[in-house]
Design brief:
Phosphoribosyl-aminoimidazole Synthetase, Chain A, domain 2; 2 domains; 11 helices; 6-stranded mixed beta sheet; 60s Ribosomal Protein L30, Chain: A; homodimer; alpha+beta
Chain lengths: 327, 327
C-alpha cells in the first residue's frame, strides 16, 4: 500500500463526509463550517510507539487508544466531538496492519457522529498524532480556571486500574486487564452534562494530584483530598496493600477519569441530574477547594508520592502531603 | 526543561492570545471563534527527523521549515492563516534547543497574525506535527477539483532549486543554498488573490507532474505541459544539462510553488491584477488542461520521469511522456 492508496482507502470509507464538512479528505486542506452560536474546541494528542504504547501492540488497539485519549480532552471541555484528523507516522505501509489500525481508530465514529476530515501520512518511527474537534455553545466550555474555595472535588471513576493494565499490556498479556489499557472509556456524555454545573474540569491523564494541581494553578487556589474518600479500583486493592494502592490511585496517569469541581450552591441540582442521567456512575466527592496554592492529602500519614504519572521528578511544591491525624 | 516548563514558556510568550481565541494554551483544549460568513480551513503536516530534514539540522531551521511547509497548504486553499498548533515529539527537553526551535517556528507569526493555540509535547524520536488553521469567506476556498478543459496552467516560481538545496542541506553545508531548504517561501498572498480567478490550485510538494495529476484526478481531466515553457531554476541549469534539469524541475518536490489553473475567460483580468499586485513574480503559463486523465509533457523526447518527488515508483499512468516533435 502506498501513501496515496492509503489516502484513497480513507476517502472511500462511508460516513466520512458530513454536513458541516465542506471539503474533506483529498484536497490540500479540509474546510469546515462552525454553526452560529458555537465555538470550536480543538485538542491534539500524540501517541508514540514505545512511549505511550508497547511497540508490538495490535494495530486495532493502537488506533482505538490513540483516538480515545485524544477525545478525553474534549470530554474535559464539555464539548460535543465532531471532526477528527489523523497524522500517522509509520515505518511501513502494510495494508492489513493499516486497515486494522483504521478499524480500531474509527470504532467510536458512529457513537459520536465523528467525521474524519484529513491528516497526514509520513514514513518514520511509529506515532499517531490525533487532532480532535468539538463544538460547544459559545462561552460554555468547561475550563480549568473556574474553581473557587469551597467547591467540592469529584472524580468520575475508581482510580488505579490503569496502572495494572499498563503493566499487563507491557507484558503482552492477552487478558481483559491488558485490553483495558487500550479500550479507554471516555466521559463525553458526563462532560457535556457538567457544562451547567461544574466550575472547573480536567481529565486525569497525569495522575489525580498532578491534574488537580493544574486546576489549582489556573484557578489560583489549593485543594484538599480526603484520603479515605478516594475511590480505588477493586483489583488494585486486591493486589497491593491499601496504602500503596492509594499512592498509585493518586499519582498514576492513564485513568482518563474526569476530575471536576462543583460549587456548593449547585450541588443538589447536580446530584439530582446525576441520579437521573448517570445512575450507575461512581461520582464520589474526594475533597474540596481551599485557600492556598497546593494540593494536600489529609487523613493518612507518610504517603510516598514520588511517582507522579508521566511527569517524574515533579517539584515538591506541586504535591504536598499533610497528615491531619485520625478523623 | 520539563514538559510543563516548556508549556509555561509557550504560554508566557507575547502576542499568543488573539481576539478570535477564547481559550489558548494551558487548558485541556483550545477554544476558538470562527467569524460569521467564514469557513475554517485546516491542514496538518508532519516533519520527521531523518526523513523530512537532516537529523543534525539547526533547531531554528527545523522550526522554520516545519511551519512553512504546513502553511503552504493553506496558501493553496487561498486561506488567511490565523491559528497554529504544534505537536512536538522530542528525545530531550534542552532549553536552548527548544527556544531556538520556537524562534524559528514563530518567526512568521507577526507577518500572518498567527496565534499559537496549543499542541502537545511528547518524548520520542524527533518529529513536529504542525496543524495550521485559516479562514476563507464561505464557499471561496481554492480546490483541486475545479479545473476545466481549456484552462491555462500556471506555476508560481522557477522549479528545481529545492533539489540542489536538499542535497546541500544533507551535506550540512552552511551556504545560502543549504539554508534555502529550510526557509521555504510560502505563497500566502498569491493564494488569497487567486480566490477570484483560479479554477483549481495545489502546492507543489510532491513534484509538478505528481501534483498536477492530483488536480487532474479531482477535476476529471488531463493536462498538457509544454516542455520549453517550464521555468527552471538558474542555478540548476548551470549545474546539470538542460534535459536533466527539466526532469528534476518536473518531478522534484519541496519547491512549494503554487500550481493553478485559470479559465481563458478570466485570463486578462488575472494578468491585470498580477501585474499590479505581483509585479516581480514569475507566473508563467506552462500548459493547459485537456481531455483525458493523464499528464503529458510535449515538446521534448525521451524524458526520464522515474524520479517523482517523494512518491517513488509512481504508476505509469500517472505521468505519461509524449513527444510532439519540434514546435
Amino acid at each position: 500500500m502506498s501513501e496515496f492508496t492509503w489516502i484513497d482507502f480513507l476517502s472511500s470509507q462511508p460516513d466520512l463526509q458530513e454536513n458541516s464538512v465542506s471539503v474533506g479528505i483529498g484536497d490540500d486542506a479540509a474546510v469546515m463550517r462552525v454553526p452560529r452560536g458555537h465555538e470550536l474546541v480543538m485538542s491534539v494528542d500524540t501517541s508514540v510507539a514505545g512511549v505511550h504504547f508497547p511497540k508490538d501492540a495490535a494495530p486495532y488497539d493502537i488506533g482505538y487508544r490513540a483516538l480515545a485519549v485524544a477525545l478525553s480532552d474534549l470530554a474535559a471541555m464539555g464539548a460535543n466531538p465532531c471532526w477528527v484528523a489523523l497524522s500517522l507516522t509509520t515505518p511501513t505501509f502494510d495494508s492489513d496492519w493499516l486497515a486494522e489500525l483504521y478499524r480500531g481508530f474509527t470504532h467510536t465514529f458512529s457513537q459520536y457522529s465523528l467525521t474524519l476530515i484529513g491528516g497526514d501520512t509520513t514514513q518514520g518511527p511509529l506515532a499517531l498524532s490525533v487532532q480532535v474537534y468539538g463544538l460547544v455553545p459559545t462561552g460554555s466550555a468547561l475550563l480549568r480556571s473556574g474553581a473557587n474555595v469551597g467547591d467540592i472535588i469529584f472524580v468520575s471513576k475508581a482510580l488505579g486500574q490503569s496502572a495494572l493494565a499498563l503493566e499487563a499490556a507491557k507484558r503482552g498479556e492477552q487478558t481483559a486487564l491488558a485490553k483495558s489499557f487500550y479500550t479507554v472509556e471516555v466521559e463525553i456524555a458526563l462532560g457535556q452534562a457538567l457544562r451547567d454545573f461544574a466550575s472547573a474540569c480536567i481529565d486525569v491523564s497525569d495522575g489525580l494530584l498532578a491534574d488537580l494541581y493544574h486546576i489549582c494553578k489556573r484557578s489560583q487556589c489549593g485543594a484538599q483530598i480526603e484520603a479515605d474518600t478516594v475511590c480505588i479500583d477493586k483489583t488494585l486493592l486486591e493486589k497491593v496493600e491499601a496504602k500503596k494502592a492509594l499512592e498509585i490511585a493518586l499519582t498514576h496517569g492513564d485513568d482518563y477519569a474526569l476530575c471536576f469541581t462543583i460549587p456548593a450552591s449547585r450541588l443538589r441540582a447536580w446530584q439530582a441530574l446525576r441520579a437521573k442521567q448517570f445512575p450507575h456512575a461512581t461520582l464520589y466527592p474526594v475533597g474540596k477547594i481551599v485557600e492556598g496554592d497546593s494540593v494536600f492529602v489529609s487523613g493518612i500519614e507518610d504517603l510516598n508520592l514520588q511517582q507522579s504519572g508521566y511527569q517524574h521528578g515533579m517539584q515538591s511544591d506541586v504535591v504536598s502531603n499533610r497528615s491531619t491525624g485520625k478523623r
